[in-house]
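Action item from last meeting closed. Structure (208 res):
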């Protein structure tokens, strides 16, 4: 018998980045997930999460400084405090209104880092803060994918991307994201709470 083994080698990341995003179709079932694959534990006090609203740019009321330590290989989940219990069970930081995670499909979310002088610079983004696309932005060829969908960062991605058009892409092949449609109410995607995840379209098997 000949057994074929396929392996996937994942590169070490250069910094924290947004690894998952959800904008549920009901209520406050929304969240973002931040991944640390740098090889070292990271002090979260060097990072902020930013939010926009309806194309009006980054909004002070939606800015949140983070705290604590994110260990290597782990994720940090932020969600509204009124999200479903299934989401809150995986959440590290639950926020009251108003915050970056009280977003709709046309609201951008950013991850920013202290440049060493107390000024925070954007290192990753979903959407365009100064642009209102209507219902949502297209991702990987899916229309309005930032509305009523879950976005999962591909396992091949090793850094954030501040150019949203490049990150979103125009097809499954050139996008940094996989797009999934979640159930509407009390869902928790299997991917929430861990990263990376292999593209489910890739089948890895051996003959029996």
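Sequence:
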């Amino acid at each position: 018998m000949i057994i074929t083994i396929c392996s996937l080698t994942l590169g070490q990341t250069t910094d924290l980045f947004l690894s998952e995003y959800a904008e549920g179709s009901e209520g406050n079932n929304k969240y973002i997930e931040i991944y640390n694959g740098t090889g070292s534990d990271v002090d979260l006090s060097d990072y902020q999460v930013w939010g926009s609203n309806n194309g009006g740019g980054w909004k002070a009321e939606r800015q949140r400084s983070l705290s604590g330590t994110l260990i290597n290989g782990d994720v940090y989940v932020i969600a509204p405090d009124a999200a479903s219990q299934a989401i809150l069970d995986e959440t590290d930081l639950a926020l009251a209104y108003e915050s970056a995670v009280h977003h709709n499909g046309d609201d951008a979310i950013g991850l920013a880092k202290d440049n060493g002088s107390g000024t925070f610079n954007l290192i990753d983004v979903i959407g365009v803060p100064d642009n209102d696309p209507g219902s949502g932005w297209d991702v990987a060829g899916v229309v309005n994918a930032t509305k009523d969908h879950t976005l999962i960062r591909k396992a091949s991605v090793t850094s954030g991307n501040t150019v949203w058009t490049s990150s979103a892409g125009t097809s499954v092949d050139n996008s940094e994201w996989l797009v999934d449609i979640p159930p509407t109410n009390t869902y928790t995607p299997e991917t929430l709470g861990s990263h990376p995840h292999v593209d489910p379209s890739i089948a890895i098997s051996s003959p029996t």
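Note appended to the action item: The chain is about 5% helix and 25% strand.
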